[in-house]
């Protein structure tokens, strides 16, 4: 079918809305009418080259929610009319990673940036001129329709707003799990959240719900610091340097048991700074993405050893998508997890560049594209 999509044709150039053609669902695939797509910083990394795809043009978007319109052969877990969230990492449930409890590291994820469908290793999305299109993480939620493998979809309850559900395809479980799973925040611990955008605000809420004593929010944008206090932070600072003295004072010199780094772009030169506010025996969780082509890190190895600190990487917050996404949305429904107030503004598809500029300017916790008939 013919539809629209937001494409990148080269690095550091704006998104372009173009006509694309999407193939029909094959075995183990479903066709989804998209209703909402989250605007995550990771898609901006596509523009800068921080996340290198297999080629151009690229169809962006890896957070989204919609309605199943058609199912392919051998699909048993979904029916037409089901509401679903797209999981940016598929979860097959059968590979060694999934069986060992690490569904966020599903072996299907090895193919996320190559552009070819995991079902048959063919390109299923094309431009009007017939060019192969590389969809972000085999999804491409910046289009009002998509065909995906059933391992990339999670069924949800039908009374959940699509704009809320969309954020659970990446940002919410990534942030929340960074605190509760990868960070293993325990009651009474002191936690620092570095960067309080969408993922950071979810991490902040995860720390609060896990019972953290003090939650130190660190972000250079004043408005985001104000919002962090509303979401449960006990203190807010513009920089790690500004925060360090207060953290030391409040914790009697012990520093933060857990430091969750959710900045938009991780730089290796900052790692030792984050480790500096991490307590002895504590853990610094790197959730934010660095450039995949860079490998330089500044880290005092002697202090890492002598103070027995942990530097922990995480993807998707260590989440099990098929389990955690419905659970997080159930927490939203009973008022335990505030997702709705994280949505600062909704945009049309043709406003995507404006939305990403707002993100870069620090105006949004999370922007969401809300699809209408005009987009289809």
UniProtKB/TrEMBL annotation:
<keyword id="KW-0520">NAD</keyword>
<dbReference type="Pfam" id="PF08240">
    <property type="entry name" value="ADH_N"/>
</dbReference>
<dbReference type="Pfam" id="PF00107">
    <property type="entry name" value="ADH_zinc_N"/>
</dbReference>
<dbReference type="InterPro" id="IPR002328">
    <property type="entry name" value="ADH_Zn_CS"/>
</dbReference>
<keyword id="KW-0560">Oxidoreductase</keyword>
<feature type="domain" description="Alcohol dehydrogenase-like C-terminal">
    <location>
        <begin position="198"/>
        <end position="331"/>
    </location>
</feature>
<protein>
    <recommendedName>
        <fullName>alcohol dehydrogenase</fullName>
        <ecNumber>1.1.1.1</ecNumber>
    </recommendedName>
</protein>
<dbReference type="GO" id="GO:0005829">
    <property type="term" value="C:cytosol"/>
</dbReference>
<dbReference type="GO" id="GO:0008270">
    <property type="term" value="F:zinc ion binding"/>
</dbReference>
<keyword id="KW-0479">Metal-binding</keyword>
<dbReference type="InterPro" id="IPR023921">
    <property type="entry name" value="ADH_Zn_actinomycetes"/>
</dbReference>
<comment type="similarity">
    <text>Belongs to the zinc-containing alcohol dehydrogenase family.</text>
</comment>
<dbReference type="InterPro" id="IPR013149">
    <property type="entry name" value="ADH-like_C"/>
</dbReference>
<dbReference type="InterPro" id="IPR036291">
    <property type="entry name" value="NAD(P)-bd_dom_sf"/>
</dbReference>
<dbReference type="InterPro" id="IPR013154">
    <property type="entry name" value="ADH-like_N"/>
</dbReference>
<dbReference type="GO" id="GO:0051903">
    <property type="term" value="F:S-(hydroxymethyl)glutathione dehydrogenase [NAD(P)+] activity"/>
</dbReference>
<keyword id="KW-0862">Zinc</keyword>
<dbReference type="InterPro" id="IPR011032">
    <property type="entry name" value="GroES-like_sf"/>
</dbReference>
<dbReference type="GO" id="GO:0004022">
    <property type="term" value="F:alcohol dehydrogenase (NAD+) activity"/>
</dbReference>
<dbReference type="GO" id="GO:0046294">
    <property type="term" value="P:formaldehyde catabolic process"/>
</dbReference>
<feature type="domain" description="Alcohol dehydrogenase-like N-terminal">
    <location>
        <begin position="27"/>
        <end position="157"/>
    </location>
</feature>
């Amino acid at each position: 079918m013919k539809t629209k999509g937001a494409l990148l044709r080269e690095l550091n150039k704006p998104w372009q809305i173009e006509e694309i053609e999407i193939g029909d669902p094959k075995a183990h695939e479903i066709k989804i009418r998209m209703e909402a797509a989250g605007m995550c910083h990771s898609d901006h990394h596509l523009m800068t080259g921080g996340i290198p795809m297999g080629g151009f043009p690229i169809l962006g978007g890896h957070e989204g929610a919609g309605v199943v319109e058609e199912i392919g052969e051998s699909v048993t877990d979904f029916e037409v009319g089901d509401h679903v969230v797209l999981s940016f990492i598929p979860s097959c449930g059968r590979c060694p990673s999934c069986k060992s409890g690490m569904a966020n590291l599903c072996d299907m994820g090895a193919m996320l940036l190559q552009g070819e469908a995991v079902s048959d290793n063919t390109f299923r999305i094309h431009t009007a001129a017939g060019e192969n299109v590389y969809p972000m993480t085999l999804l491409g939620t910046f289009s009002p329709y998509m065909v995906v493998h059933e391992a990339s979809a999670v069924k949800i309850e039908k009374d959940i707003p699509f704009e809320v559900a969309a954020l659970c395809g990446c940002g919410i479980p990534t942030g929340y799990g960074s605190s509760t799973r990868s960070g293993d925040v325990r009651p009474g611990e002191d936690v620092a959240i570095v960067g309080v955008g969408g993922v950071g605000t979810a991490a902040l809420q995860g720390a609060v719900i896990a019972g953290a004593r003090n939650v130190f929010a660190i972000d250079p944008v004043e408005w985001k610091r104000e919002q962090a206090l509303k979401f449960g932070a006990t203190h807010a600072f513009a920089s790690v340097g500004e925060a360090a003295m207060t953290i030391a004072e409040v914790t009697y010199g012990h520093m933060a048991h857990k430091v969750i780094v959710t900045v938009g772009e991780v730089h290796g030169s900052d790692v030792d700074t984050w480790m500096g506010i991490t307590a002895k025996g504590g853990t610094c969780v790197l959730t934010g993405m660095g450039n995949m082509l860079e490998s330089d890190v500044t880290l005092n190895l002697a202090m890492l050893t002598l103070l027995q600190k942990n530097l922990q990487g995480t993807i998707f917050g260590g989440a099990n998508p098929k389990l955690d996404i419905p659970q997080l949305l159930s927490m939203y429904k009973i008022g335990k997890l505030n997702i709705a107030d994280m949505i600062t503004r909704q945009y049309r598809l043709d406003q995507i560049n404006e939305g990403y500029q707002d993100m870069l300017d620090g105006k949004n916790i999370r922007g969401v594209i809300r699809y209408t008939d005009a987009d289809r």
